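Dear support,

We are seeing what looks like truncated structure output for some complexes. This example has two components. We would appreciate it if you could run it in full and send us the complete token output so we can diff it against ours.
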Amino acid sequence: MKNLIEVKDIKKNYGKKEAVKGISFNVQENEILGLLGPNGSGKTTTIGMLLGLLKPTSGQIFINNLKLENHRIEILEMINFISPYIELPKKLTVKQNLYVYSKLYKVKNIQERIEYLSEKLRIEDLLDSITGELSSGQKNRVSLAKALINEPKVLLLDEPTASLDPEVGDFVRTFLEEYKREKKISILLASHNMSEVTRLCKSVLMMKNGEIIDQGKPDDLITKHGRTNLEEVFLKLSRSKSEFN
Amino acid sequence: MSLTRIYGLFLRHFYLITRSFPRILDLVYWPTIQITLWGFISNFFATHTTYYNNAVGVILTCAILYDFLFRTSIGFNMLFLEEIWSRNFTNLFITPMKIGEILTSLVITALIRSLIGLVPAILLTSPLFGISILELGIFLFFLFLSLYIFGITLGILVSSGLLRFGPSFENIAWSTMFLLAPFGCIYYPIETLPEVFQKIAYILPLVYIFEEARNILINQTVNIENIYNAFIWNSLYFTLSIILFYYSFNAAKNKGTLINMGE
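Here is the complete output from our reference environment:
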């Protein structure tokens, strides 16, 4: 399988503070990799570096074999991102937002693409609604539509189901599974929802204080640490490490 | 440069303006109030001073020119701030838009915003005060162009600050024009300023633009040197602002401002 994301020994320092301390990992085509860690562990910084919003202090990032440092624009054409902490312009209608982003990503057959995503994400009835007036579940699906508007090869998701009710959360997870299978994209999923990570991810990285403290398949990690689920593994790793820090 | 992407970002702001009647009203309201006020002041001075005897519309014309500068600069900043306020900043900067495309789109949108506000106000001056800014003739175009470039330059400088320092720089966005206005000699000749201030004024394009507007209206002559000087200073400041914007973008990538913007 081809690696769509290759991260080689990246570090990020803010002055004297080391936010990310030389981490390396790969994400293959048609794979969802979970990125776990407590707040401040370096997940968002890592995602920021993958998106080209943050410049690594050292190390290299390759997306689809292109070095991010030298091919930022080409890479941004094939990558996309959602996070509950960023929003689409609230005063525009859903359709206007999707149309604008289609233009920014130079999408061909815009109408078809919007119709396809609207149907898949069940937002057809929302297209003429004002984005700021939608419920959080509806906004989440619209943001997902925006994130898929350019048919990305790589999708970065930062807590994609945070603040969603269980039904919408399940719909989003099912959609992501199917979409990944159909399009063979790579997904990097940062989440605090351990059942979500267990369900979606082939393997996970556990981060703490800017380092990868463990990694592997969810089931293997559960067995290795003698726990019954991933949440217990997460708690064990977070707490045991912190005793020494 | 991709015209599609430039158009896409323009469209984002066009939709925003056209969806909201209060926004359109806001664009038209302030220039109209400003020009009406200066129109009456202008009439008063024209009948009570000898300086403006031959040119009733001098103050009003300068008020219109200054308002165009003000609207262009604030308009550009508003477009940038709009992305921060709506928490759309990160979405925009993870699209494959080049910096040049973002700036070009905002420069065009800022012009349209300014014209939406100013054209109705200019049209009002003729029936209300019997004055037409078109009396400046072809040179009006050069004066407007100079002011537009300087307004955009100020907008880019402030946006560079927003990129580098984050939303806390917002207050500076509103105060830039007020800081420069006294040195611009908008309503009075440069000799009115103390000598130290004159030295500062001479390194700004504004003084040449407003001096020339008065020269054309009062003396009915054209001093090309003023227009030339304005373009020289404008070119210098515009180039510096672009360099600073790129520098701030890179600094923001090091500091992490781009990912935290709006929080």
